[in-house]
Amino acid sequence: MTPQATGASLMDPGRPLILVTGATGYIGGRLVPRLLAAGHRVRCMARNPDRLAGRSWPGAEAVKGDVSDPASLAVALEGVSQAYYLVHAMSEDRPDFRDRDLGHALVFAAACAKAGVQRIIYLGGLGDPARQRSEHLASRQEVGAALGSTGVPVLEFRAAVIVGSGSASFEMLRHLTERLPIMITPRWVNTRCQPIGVRNVLGYLTEALEHPEVSGIFEIGGRDILDYRRMMLGYAEARGLRRLIIPMRVPLPILSALWVDLVTPIPLELVKPLIEGMTTEVVVRDPRALEVFRVRPMAYKEALALALERLDEDAVETTWATSLSREQEEQVLGSHEGMFLERHHRHVKAPPHVVFDTFCALGGENGWPAGNWLWQIRGLLDRAFRGMGMRRGRRHPRQLRVGDPVDFWRVEALEEDRLLRLRSEMKLDGHAWLQFTVRPEGAGSRLEQLAFFEPHGVLGLIYWYSMLPFHLFVFPGMIRALKRRAEAAVTESRPGA
């Protein structure tokens, strides 16, 4: 099997081939375009290469591969000079994650040795092994050692909190600071940390290819050493917020994790290892990276300003959520922007244009296919709070264009035979969207339905959780009804039907 290119190759075929594992992840998704811009030949490996569709990465190859599967790795590593290992199981809330991470690293190391790979480049975690209290940070360092177990040289960068729009640890601190004027926090807020800007991390990873002879462990960090309390207060200052943080003893770490899971969009399976890691001091003890590489770390305030600028411009490249597997995505309610989400998928035995026409006919006199009475009650509540309610209906019973009202929604985006996104104009403590996407799948289509909600403060959180019982009925029922309607439309259009 030969890996297929996602676009015409623009790179010199004589240049060494670079493999990036975890190309759908937070760091991998940002690294690939930078490697391409530097003129490198890049192959991206993902368990589901379809998730790379739509990326503006001309010249990159996409190949299906799994770090636990030697056969797929043999294909992905064919002809590869150097390989980035950017895969880990931090988001998998399983008791055997440490063994799984170690096993995957050993399989990958053996495959690299067999394929003749010259070097593995790995991004791990900071922390003094002698004082390690975090199982996840210990696992990251074990993975680095396992990657070098078969004799292939390894260049391992170890970093602490990565400050960048979409980074899980940064988003957790950001949302805690945004939403809580007064925080009674566990004592881990006093733990020292050396945060590093995501641009600096990408700078180290990209420049690594200019030093093919360099291997070993390099600790990387930003210019400042802070505790997490000062990081949150620094964020508050940058946003013009006044915040009071009161550290105290919390008897069970899981209580902190549950609270963060409630207040922020980061799901519990990510929150638990993040908080566990925050109990361990993570600072650079060996500054050799500054001697070998040209990267000059930025101050925390500078990295913070760049992250906020990206958020304000809606120019976030990747998020922590991009690294989740398809199965995990189905289970997670949340996204980096502070949005909760509910996603549903269905295979529909109808072509995309029929499915598209079906969901474009929602609302107005056509009504809503599941719990229409609940939609009407919600409209009445909206009117009671001086909102528009459901009275606007829609301009045309079947046709839509951007800007059209659909009851208390407005069409925000419309792509023929592919996508419809509705923005809520209800009175509520937050912003809400409802999006439908359809794409070809086999002899039919794959329909995806997404409900987004960005809460504003505690009232927004209360609203979202109070609506969840109704969501269990409304949203699954809606996508089932859309599937039935689209398939019925196909049956009715057949000759003799």
TrEMBL record:
It comes from the Bacteria. Residues 22-129 form the NAD(P)-binding domain. Coiled coil: none annotated. This is NAD(P)-dependent oxidoreductase. Gene3D superfamilies: NAD(P)-binding Rossmann-like Domain. It comes from Geothrix edaphica. The chain crosses the membrane at residues 456-475. Keywords: Membrane, Transmembrane, Transmembrane helix. InterPro entries: DUF2867, Ergot_Alk_Oxidoreductase, NAD(P)-bd_dom, NAD(P)-bd_dom_sf.
